[in-house]
Amino acid sequence: MKVSDILRAKGGTVHTVLSWNTVGEAAIRLAGPPGIGALVVSDDGFRERVDGIISERDIVRRLAADGPGLMTLTVADIMTRHAITCSPDNSIAEVMALMNRWRHRHLPVVENGRLCGMISIGDVVKQRLAEMSTEAGVLRDIYLASH
Fold it and tell me: Would you list the DSSP string of 18-68?
């Protein structure tokens, strides 16, 4: 299974924010609806380029350091500038390894240099569970057919 399978099921909608928006504005967007865990920072006006990423975790960690004044800082002040991305052609195993290695819960999906989706660890787990269920069913059917 590939990232493209996840996007086919969930769609390619990506929630974005501009780097000059305030952290408070980003927090409102994250809270929803829909409630989401991360926003891609894209300043190109077309929501195609990935300039960074900001997550709930980024905000919480900086809140502990900066206090309420954090909400008036810009997204650029706290975002992760070099976002780890994946491709629609990456396998589920590859993105699981990326997420684990870099401790990221969200990966923007980029194809030919253009943002085309976003996947979360929840999407990956859901896809993997579906794969495992199918595999178990096939193995059960093989066992029953041989006995």
Answer: -TTSBHHHHHHHHHSSSP-SEEEE--SSSS-S--EEEEHHHHHHHHHHHGG
% the chain with pLDDT above 90:
80
Tell me, which fold does domain 3-146 have in CATH?
A: CBS-domain (3.10.580)
Residue 30: how many other CB atoms lie within 10 Å: 19
Phi and psi at residue 32, in whole multiples of 5°? 85, -165
pTM: 0.88
Angle formed by the axes of helices 92-102 and 121-146, nearest 10°? 140
Question: How is residue 60 written in tokens?
Answer: 């919480």
Give CA–CA dist 43/32, Å, rounded.
Answer: 21
Instruction: Please tell me the predicted confidence (pLDDT) of residue 130.
Output: 84
Q: 18 vs 39, 43, 50, 146, CA distance in Å?
A: 9, 5, 11, 59
| Measured distance CA(125)–CA(145) in Å, rounded | 30
- Whether residue 135 contacts residue 128, with contact meaning beta carbons closer than 8 Å, is answered with no
